[in-house]
Every structure is written in structure tokens, then in C-alpha cells.
Amino acid sequence: MSEQTSLTYAKVNEDVIRMLDKPTVKWLALFIPTLGIVGFGLFCFLYQVYTGLGVAGYRHPVFWGVYITDFVFWVGIAHSGTLISAILFLFRASFRISIYRIAEGMTVFAVLTAGLFPIIHLGRPWFFYWLFPYPNQRELWVNFKSPLLWDVFAVSTYLTVSSVFFFVGMIPDIAAIRDKVTEVPRKILYSILSLGWKGSNWEWLHYTRAYLYFAAFATPLVLSVHSVVSWDFAMADLPGWHTTIFAPYFVAGAIFSGLGMVISLTVPIRKIFHLEKYITLDNYDGMAKMIILTSMIVGYAYGTEFFMAWYSGSPYEWGQFYYRATGEYALFYWIMVACNVLIPIPLWFKSVRRNIKALFIISIFINIGMWFERFNIIVISLSRGFDPAAWGVYKPSWVELGITAGSFAWFFMFFLLFIKTLPSVSIAEMKEFLPVPRKEANHHG
Amino acid sequence: MDNQGVLGIFSYIDVTINAVRKLKKEGFKNLRVFSPAPNHEIEHVMDEPESIVRFFTMFGAMLGAACGVGFTVLTSTDWPIQVSAKPIVSIPPYTVIIFELTILIGALSTLLGLLINSRLRKNAPKSMYDPRFSVDKFGIMVTCGRDNVKKVEEILNSQGAEEIKVDGI
Hints:
The complex is a heterodimer.
Chain A: H1 9-18, H2 25-51, H3 66-90, H4 100-114, H5 116-120, H6 147-180, H7 184-193, H8 201-234, H9 246-272, H10 281-311, H11 315-326, H12 330-342, H13 350-353, H14 356-383, H15 398-421, H16 427-433
Chain B: E1 3-10, H1 13-25, E2 31-34, H2 40-46, H3 53-78, H4 91-118, E3 138-145, H5 149-158, E4 163-168
Helix pairs in contact in B: 1-2, 3-4
């Protein structure tokens, strides 16, 4: 990380807090259209609530469509944030330091987005609270044996724990902002959020231990959440869904897509805020290597699905996979293969891994490919079940596409607000990485 | 006896550590060291007991697991729905709920442990804090009797403190 050697403690504070200056015209030019698209998504949702789920394009036999695709996609996006912030923290991978805050923010906002979709997907969304176990007049309890209820517990736990992890990680940095800002409203806001942090040895002692335990909790949690999401499908006996590889396949895919999104988000931020000294080529190199690994796992899973379909001798299973590659949805299938398996191949070359433009373009294709992966798994499997008399083709409606566009805008809206109000790079952790100021030149072991 | 707070501000970690050693050697035990980032050298020289946040974590996780078992088993037996020969209380699917609640309550309990323990000792008063501690300065706050204020100031000065503040606590 040679680019980082010229940094000092004071410079880190200055650079990170500078990002929180008043919104620029460029920021507003991004934020206002984003709000407009969120508004359109909200309009589509209200139209659906008023008219009924029929406007969503659901037709027999496909009753899980774009909304569930979006749900799985956004849960997946969330995963690499926790990977970067928690798992790589436990492994002491230094390349995570400058990007983990952005990745963590991405996690929280992606789960916030994902959590909307099961509710949007409900016929009567105002009864969503029936999913929670509470004593009620109906004298009914929820079905704890259903994977859909596991989802409720897994996703709400994930949202809570990742939000706590995100907030706790920011406390010392928010204190640094509190100490810097002079405007009264901001001073009050950051004073409240910093919880009176003063950076004493006693506070650091408890803080570092608590942070370690949060990381230790978040690590198995992140693996469990996408496993549980995969069991929404794998627990059913539908051809294309009923397979034991789904949990690792989904987890690898989630990390793969999340890394793609981290790169897509950090490249413009790095450029706009001149963070080249913080988010270095080494950071991108490390992420690109993880993309290669997860891309191979995902590609292997695609191959394994076909192999199992053929080797099992089940005509239903083989029929499903033959249909995926050659049927009405074949274009989507091959887009998925191209984006997730073929396009990341150039990352094997160091020159590509350290080329920001190439990485950005590849990351966009990964985002597209992973959305189609979820669409293919969900929609194609449902459209060709066991009984040919019950086959059908599903086409998303404008309402579904509008809500999907709204969800992307919703995610970016939170992200744009985040980079203007909270520290996008961890000030305290950057300082841990820099040499501690010393009078004597000899370095403590 | 009224206590006084004496705060020394330093620019270098090694100077700060030496000052802490000297103060400890002179018998001043009620010290607080401020730093812009966590530091092992400070942790080592302060020699504080291990954080008890871990007990909050452990008991929170155990409580979460117990809640998971309680939720699933008690609600299943409260309204048993017999489906062919399948068990009313089925452990494999309930494991997911138990696991998630273990993590959820364990993490929330850790947060509680952090908030409670960081403030167990009286937090440093505003006058004994310098905003530069969140930038690049280190600080040592010594709580001592009025009689010892001068001696502490002398030690801090001799150890290279760049500024010294004195205030009542």
C-alpha cells in the first residue's frame, strides 16, 4: 500500500471529514433524479395495492417472479459487506480497511431494500406483521417449520446485527466529526450519535473486544442468511430447486454479486472525492481475486446442476435444465453464464485487476448477471414443473419493473445520504494501519 | 479529600507511554489515557483487567438460544397440528430459529455490554477532554488529591507534555 505511506493521522481526519461538506451540484444532480425514481416505484406499489396483485404479471404457474428475484438479489448484495467487514476482519486482511465502511453501509441499505420485497409480494401487504410470532386474537402461532418463516428470522436478525455492527464501528469516527464541526445543528447531531465517546483507554478496551465479538457473530450469520434464503427454494420438490448444493451455491453467488456492487460503488466515490490514497489499487486487486474465486464456485455450481440433472436420470430435472439452456428464457440463461463465468476471466491477469475502468465495467456485468441468475432459478423452474399441462411463460409487467427500478433508486438514495452524513472511510482503523507518531525513530515490536 | 484532574497532552506515543510509566512508578494509579486509535502499547502499559463484555456476549447468546427453544417448542405444543406421522416438535427446522435468536440476542447483549462498561467508570469531564484526541494527540488524565497536583504537573512537564490543564473533578 505504497500510496498510503504519505498519510498522517491529521490528514486522514481532514480527508474523510471533507467528504461531509455541503452537497455539491454533482451530488444533487444524482440525488434528485434518484428521489424521482423512488417516487415512481412508490407510485407503482400504491397502484398495485389499490388494484391488486394481478397487475404484477403473475400467471399460472409462476407466482414468484421479479419481486422474489429482487429480494434474493438484494440479500445477496448485502453479503459481501459483512464478508469485508467481519470475515476479513477476523482474518486480518489489510486490504479491507479503506473499503469496509462503504461495504457495511451497502449491507445495511441492501437488506433494507431486500426486506421490502416479501411485503410488496404479499396480496395484502398491510398484514405483513402476521409473520411475527405474537399472542393474538386468532390464537394461532406462526409455522416455525416453514422456510419462509426462517427467512423472517434470518433477514430481520441480519438487518439488526449488521446495523449494530455498522453503527458501533462508526462511533469513534463520529466523535472525530463532532470535534471538528462548528455548526450547532451538526454538532448536536454528531454529539448524540457519538454517545459521548472520548477515546480513553477504557473505552477502547471494551470497544475492541465488543467489535471482535460482533465480527464473530456476523460471520456465521452471513453464511446462515443466504443458506436460509436458498432453502426457500431447495425445501420444495420442484425440478431446478430441489438440490443440496443450493446453500453454498447461493452464499458464493451472494459474495460474488456483493463484491461486484462494492466495486461499482467505490470506483465513482474514489474518483469524485479523490480517495486514491485510501482506496488503493491493492484494495481492488484483493477484491478482484475474491471475485475470481467466487466466480469459479458459481460457474462450478452451474455445471454441477447440469451434471446432476443428467446423472440423476430424472426426466423432470433434465427437462428443466435443457429448457433453461434452450427454451423461451435461454437468452437470460446465457446472459447469466456470460456475465458471471466468462466476463470475469480477464481478472486472472494482474493488469486487468489493477485497471480501474476494466474492473468497473466487469463489476457492472456481474451485477446484471447475478440478477438474471436469481430470475432464472426462480422463474424458469416455476414455469416448467412436473406437469406439462401446467407449464406457462411469465413476463414481468411494467409495475414490477417500476418497483424494481424504484428499489435500485431506494438503495442509491440511502447510499448518497450516507456518503454526505457519515464517514465513508473508517478514520480509526486507517490510523491503526498507519505508523503511530513517535519521537524516537525505533519502532515498537 | 477533593480530587483534582490533571491533563497532559502529548504528540508522540512513546513519550506518552514513558509518562504513564513514570506516573505509575510515583504511585499515581488513577490514570486515563486518550488516543485517536486503539493501541496495544497503551493497553499493555495500563494493564487493565480483561473486558467483561465477553460475559454479556455469552449470556446473551445463551438467553437467545433459550428463547429460540421456548418459542418453537412451546408454540408448537400450544396448538399442535398433526401432519401424518410427522413430529409436533421437530428439531432440524427449529435449529434455524434457535441459531438466529442466539446471534440476535447475543449481539444486542454485546452492544448493551459495550454501552454499560464504557461508562462504568465516571466518564472524563468535558474540561478534561481535548478535541485533538480524536485527531492526532494523546492525553493522560491523572486524578489525584489537591496536594499532589503540583507533583503531577512536574512529572508531566518533565516527561514532555506539551500542554497541561488542571480542573476539579
